[in-house]
Request: fold
Amino acid sequence: MNFWDTITGNDLTREWNAFEVRAQALPADHRAAWEQIQVHLFPYGDFTGRNLMPILDSALGLLEQTAADGQGIDEVLGEDIKGFCAALAGGEGARSYRDRWRQQLNRNVARKLNRLGD
Reply:
């Protein structure tokens, strides 16, 4: 990966397009699960989403393998795809960008309130 691709995000675009090509080869139920996985993983991403690329690659690989083995989505992911995604992102209770922003806002408000109390 060269510097220009990293700065412009071209590398992410190429990876994302490769994911979409791979996902199109999946059966319909696996493709629907892929869409749900994307939706539920994005809140755990950083500003660029670069940290999610290995996780998404692994999740798509799992879907490809299970489709090749003839397993259904419920056998592999169960009913709780959101919980599955939380586990992929670092476990239940993993901090999302909302949690980080909330903590930053609370810290800033507390700092301002302490200055007013002085």
